[in-house]
Amino acid sequence: MIAEAGHYALVLALGLALIQSTVPILGARWSDHALMNVARSTALAQLLFVGCSFTALTMLHVVSDFSVVNVFENSHSMKPLLYKITGVWGNHEGSMLLWVLILALFGGLVAAFGNNLPLSLRAHVLAVQGWIAAAFYLFILVTSNPFLRIATPPIEGRDLNPVLQDIGLAVHPPMLYLGYVGFSISFSFAVAALIEGRIDAAWARWVRPWTLMAWIFLTLGIAMGSYWAYYELGWGGWWFWDPVENASLMPWLAGTALLHSAVVMEKRNALKVWTILLSILTFSLSLLGTFLVRSGVLTSVHAFATDPARGVFILLILCLFIGGSLSLYAWRASTLKQGGLFAPISREGALVLNNLFLTTACATVFIGTLYPLGLEVLTGDKISVGAPFFNLTFGPLFVPLLLAVPFGPLLAWKRGDLFGAAQRLMAAGVTALVAVAVLWAWIHGGATLAPLAIGLAVFVIAGALTDLAERAGLFRVALASAIARARGFPRATWGTAFAHAGVGIALIGIVCETTWNSEYIGMMKPSDVANVAGYQLKLDDIAQRQGPNFREMIAQFTVSRDGETIQVMTPSKRNFTTRSSSTTEAALLTRGASQLYISLGDTNADGAIAVRIYHKPLVLLIWWGPVLMAFGGLLSLSDRRLRVGAPKPAKAARALQPAE
Amino acid sequence: MKKILASLFVAAMMSGAPAAHAVRPDEIMKDPAKEARARDLSRELRCMVCQNQSIDDSDAPLARDLRLLVRERIASGDSDKQVIDFLVARYGEFVLLKPRLSPHTLLLWLLPPLALVGGGLALWVFGRRRSSAGRATDPSLLHLTEEEEARLERLLAAEAPDKS
């Protein structure tokens, strides 16, 4: 009954989406306020029905109703409650349902909080959202229905993939989807602007908070996924340049570029056409990511060819939306008036440079991800493009970009003074050089690039601080008045500084982890001691334990340094009987920003166990950086200017509308 | 992230994610310099039955065989290039995670620099055309007009008493 109700709610949501995608547009065409307002009610109702559908599936998972295929294939009655809930989106059908739920959530948010939007713009935006929603509801209902029943229900389910039975699954996919799907709002705004043929600074001010929100979630989602992989997969890697990761990185790069170009548009009314294009591209890349991971095309081109129903459907959606929006762009972009001239050396110029490097980086990831697929389809040749390629091509693009980051905020709008900015960055530059020199002296020899890279990171961080100090007039005016000035900063200023510093901090973490990572691989028996980076790790004991739906082998290590015991670490290895598979649960010991990392391998006949121990210096900075970036984004989002919204000249006209 | 995401997305296809434990203690070479070379080479080589994993990361049996093969070649005195050539001759280009520059990978390698240079060039041309067009229609666009200057003066004068 619950399954049927959930299915029916989804069908109703499709119906609502179809209404939402047509009626408001007709309303806008006929200037009919009632019809335009239909968008608002349908968007909210859609959210309600998809919410019901999602709740239904969650309930089925919680009560372990194995008469539903989706529950049978991905759940187990003994599974802890948390994983019963997170297991809802730990599979194809459920994760698509989460996708549309989040899409409906964003549509609902625009409907509920978009009161300051001009009525026709809101109608168009929600209509475009309706198109996207309708396409994906159809996809779910036709090819990936999560509510299918089994004629003869089995007693027990097949359990969820053990790798996914982790708190990471509760956080990572929803965050990532909030980011991915959040960019649909800027896409809808862009398409609406093209349909209306009108775009101005106010448009950018409406779009910015939505883009920023999506960007914050995507940043946190990617960082969270990376940390999850780091501790769960057992070999301490945190980024693999896997196509699936690249699929999330591409929208992030394009979204970051969009965030910056939208600033130019809001402040200076320039780069309109480019901002629109970026909005379209960012969401297109999100759709491409969905296609890549959902169609199975990554596993192999042949798998895609043998079971093409899902893949072809998403490919159609992809072509329809990307092709359609780009055609609309080609047709209508020329009607958008350009405005706001600026000299090459200016804040605008710096942001254009940022966009150039970010989009090139995005193009690099794009070609590296899709080239092997394309080549195989066209010629049948199989090549691999992996981490070494990306490190070689992607890395160098960030050097000039990061060098330019501190200059951007110090340049004036319209026409900046590069020499003046350089003078003000003198202190930051000197700090960076000192950092390089100290590191060089300290490590004498070894990696030569690492100190330079850390110097670059220090420059970025010091540059962010310089911007704040300059604005506050620190060292030029009395300290008290500098503090008073700093208090008066718009929050976006703080946001920029935090986000830019976050990039530098992440870079330090990346460089330290990859350069000075130490490792011990060996067979250990109880009371053996391993020495790693000055720590002594003594294997005390190996024990067996029974978990709710797994058996595990736990090893206990006592960690000491200079004869002083620090802590006990207990890495384990779990065997899941239902899927007859195992996971390694690495043990982590955090010391400052550095970590000790132990993961277990197989046992020997003589009782020895294969152990991998890493010392990863400053590794946590890799994730603190993105968290700081997201925090900066949050500060910007809370800026009064964005909360208040754009000025609305049409206030009087809106008051005359009929009540809804 | 890879295996998690992969299992998230193709959960149905994965029969189970084995515990990752790539290089095993018994594989490690006695000479640390040679072992370091083997590790570096392993990171450039693909485990061909895995999804985009290097043989250094993968714990598939094939990856282990390849790791042992790499170490065998190094032990018998091959240079890094000889090891790579040997593996490519045996398994084809597919084994390399960083494809070699050849006619069919030309576009792959050239696109990033071309995109950067092309984008930069487009910006330069576009910027020149726009600024010259701007100057042609209104030479004073980059400066304030007298009227604007006067208005600015008035605004600043009006603001001044509030501040101080």
From TrEMBL, chain A:
It is a multi-pass membrane protein. Residues 315-640 form the Cytochrome c-type biogenesis protein CcmF C-terminal domain. The keyword Nucleotidyltransferase does not apply. GO terms for molecular function: heme binding; heme transmembrane transporter activity; lyase activity. Belongs to the CcmF/CycK/Ccl1/NrfE/CcsA family. Required for the biogenesis of c-type cytochromes. Possible subunit of a heme lyase. This is Heme lyase CcmF/NrfE family subunit. The lineage of its organism: Bacteria, Pseudomonadati, Pseudomonadota, Alphaproteobacteria, Hyphomicrobiales.
